[in-house]
Design brief:
about 400 residues; alpha/beta; Rossmann fold; Zinc Finger, Delta Prime, domain 3; 4 domains; 20 helices; about 50% helix
Length: about 400
Amino acid sequence: MKPLAFRLRPTTFDEVVGQDHLVGKNGIITKMLEQKKYLSFILYGNPGTGKTTIATIFSEQSMLDTYFFNASTDNKAKLMDIIRTTTYHDILLIIDEIHRMKADIQDYLLPFVENGKVTIIGLTALNPYQNINPAVRSRCHLYQVNDLSDEDIKKVILKGQRELDVRFGIDEEAMDLIVRFANHEVRSALNLLEATSLVLEDGDILTANLVRATMGKPNLLLDGGEDNFYELLSALQKSIRGSDVQASIFYLAKLLILGDLESIARRLMVIVYEDIGLANPNLAPKVVAACDVARKVGLPEAKMPFASVVIEMALSPKSNSAMLAIDKAMHDVMNKDTGLIPDHADNKAIRKNPDIYHYPHDDVGSINPQTYLPDKIRGTIYYEPKDESPYENALKVRFDEINKIKNIK
């Protein structure tokens, strides 16, 4: 029998979870199919979120002749063969790992995309704004495939439960544990569900202990299952942010018992930039180094680098000024007409007229009176320094000096 994850792969957009912005009733991909206007686009998002499934359903519903091309392993000769054998009709080309497309393949393909012979759907787990060639990117619409929420994963688990041969219940703690270890991936959740069902009989209840046993994990003596893993991570962050070193060590201990070192490392690296930031910038490299050591040595020794750095993080001065600054700037970029780069910061304009650029290092203190924000948002303040630590207080002094020279209030 085929694996449960394969049997439950959606065959219509109605069965796809978590992506209504793309394939829901008013989703852009749904509208393309309804109106038979097929545009090239790139789907990007984490593994297991449904990129390939969406592309496959699009192919089936569009009725276009479809060819699959892996930019990592397939060569230009294969692409030429596809296009030569489809001379008299348009095709859909699904390109996996499109970020790996070589220049010679791209140069051959793009004219066919331009004239409409080839519609492409690119698939990638990487950020296309950073990892896909601008020539490809400019010819495609970019659509992010969202990470699935816990509720999305639970819906799929319940559907999978009904498809298994054995009839059993799932208690809440077991459900939460499967969701956590699935790490937002549908395939992982269904694979784990199918494995645990092998130890059950009709009428049984799947418990967290059975899930752990199936995974080969030891039984964990936590507080009766009342602590959700993500709530523990959140409690650790709140404790460090609140400078409560005792609580920080306590929640770290609970997380270490669960054994997911990667989740701990990711959260600590977020905390050191989000909550400590410019109040103690020298701490960030220490956190990265501690996380690296913890990964390399594994448990139980990983507890030592983690504990050392968590204590220092909890006792460190705190500042969220960098986070507030970037959040405000990103909000403006997404929601406002911010205008164009000013000429004296634009390389194309400077090449035409080098005199418009003023070289800051020629000025006293390397402070240039020119400002570089677009005219439409000139004078906007994103970063506002705090004076809660010696380091950021020194930045504030410099900040005020620069603003005085640039005549920024």
